[in-house]
Amino acid sequence: TMFRRGFILFLPRLVGLLVVACCSVSIVYMLACTPKGDNQQLALPRVHSPTVKEGYEAILQEREEQHRNYIISLKKQIAQLKAELQGRTEQLKNMQNQYPDSLDIQLDHSKPEKAQANLLAFLRSQVDKAEVHSGVKLSTEYAAVPFESFTLQKVYQLETGLTRHPEEKPVRKDKRDELIEVIELAVGSLNKPDGVSKAKPRVYTASDFVEGIYRTEKNKGTLYELTFKGDAKHQFKKIVLFRPFGPVMKVKNENINMADTLINVIVPLAKRASKFRQFMQNFREMGIQQDGRIHLTVVYFGKEQMNEVKSILENTAKSANFKNFTFIQLNEEFSRGKGLDVGARFWKGNNVVLFFCDVDIYFTAEFLNSCRLNTQPGKKVFYPVLFSQYNPSIIYGHHDSIPSLEQQLIIKKETGFWRDFGFGMTCQYRSDFINIGGFDLDIKGWGGEDVHLYRKYLHSNLMVIRTPVRGLFHLWHEKQCLDELTPEQYKMCMQSKAMNEASHGQLGMLVFKQEIETHLHRQKLSSKKT
């Protein structure tokens, strides 16, 4: 009974506390839900206030204004997204125009047959870009991309050529375009929104590029690693890209009949009867006896030693029963370009392959076939890189005797070098030579005319085949640089003279010959004392 009385007395107090708590919660809720103005909180209108209607209208108007501003903000964002989407669409269209099939290959995985067809079409377009079917115009003589030749046993490549520099600009158009494309792709990747950071993204440009490295595995592709400046000092961004190579595909399968393809070998000459005798021995063996589809045109300047040269030519022709030769004599100062131009234009027969040659050149029958196979009227001209022989007296100075000429013709680092700065020995059809305009006849003496003709072909749509060949040699001879040459010609002549003597190692042995002999002498004395 005492417990019941206590509970009855406590119950009104509990109810009062609950009522007070409910009222407090209600007041807090209304204060929290009251809309805010620009600078202060809107007052909640009292229920019995005469302005209750105007208060709620003000609240509704404020809420409507907030929603209107929100809608305007959304519209701006949508417009920005549409503009960005349109820009990305234009970029995609440009990429599709440039690489129309590569994107389909990547995106259309649901249709394997279509992807395969697109892959083949894309690879064919790559073949078209690679000068397989036609040539492209090039800017300089160093812009032509050289081929590398090989047999089952050996590869003949230009890696040890003398025109390379430890630091140089990417002169070749293919290499320059490749690196520009890679840098632009890396910059575009850096500027692509990541969707995570809310801060305003930094805009990268090519000027932020620090350095890059790349390597190519010919059966896989090219790997690029490019480094860019970061957001702060000592911070960097690195982009790694990979260009995969496609599979090998057949481009052509054709039969080539060279049985009736005649080569007209044109040799300009002044004096040098002994060298001409050596040349005719090579011409008789390789051109007449082994090949047989050949004509020789000799353009001789002046009259000194002319009878001796004619006698050598006629005796060789008589002994070999060879009648396909022409001898042209010009009473003027020697000009290599003039001699070759006259010899080419003198020909009156059908279209013929012209081989512009010098008297100090040795060629094989295999080279003559290469000359035919790499020329095509209106399509291709052939600029072989010949192997230039060093001075035999230096190369074989430590031997008892100098080997025969045939034994000297070995392609090794110690015996010579690929003459990749020379453009004088070339094969092309006469029709292409005439159409291109021939030689610049204003160039006199030695050097310059060959480069001028080479540039003409590079600036045309003809394909220039540039490759080292194993059957074409420049025989060493002492070079005379005449005082009559222009300063530029004289400089070119002296550079060629310096390069022709020996390898760097062999020249070094000559320079330090005295030190080497002194060392050997000391060693000999030391061994006697012991």
List keywords for this structure.
single chain, alpha/beta, Spore Coat Polysaccharide Biosynthesis Protein SpsA, Chain A, five-stranded mixed beta sheet, four-stranded mixed beta sheet, 16 helices, 14 strands, signal-anchor, glucuronylgalactosylproteoglycan 4-beta-N-acetylgalactosaminyltransferase activity, glycoprotein
Explained architecture:
Residues 64-98 form a coiled coil. The protein is of the alpha/beta class. Among the domains are: 141-191 and 203-257, no CATH class; 263-477, Spore Coat Polysaccharide Biosynthesis Protein SpsA, Chain A. Helices cover 45% and strands 17% of the residues. It contains 16 helices and 14 strands. The chain has a five-stranded mixed β-sheet, sandwiched between helices. Strands 10-14-11-12 form a four-stranded mixed β-sheet. Strands 3-4-5 form a three-stranded antiparallel β-sheet, with helices on one face. α6 (273-291) runs parallel beside α7. The longest helix has 47 residues, at 52-98. The radius of gyration is 42 Å and the shape is elongated. The model is unreliable at 1-5, 35-45 and 99-107 (pLDDT under 50).
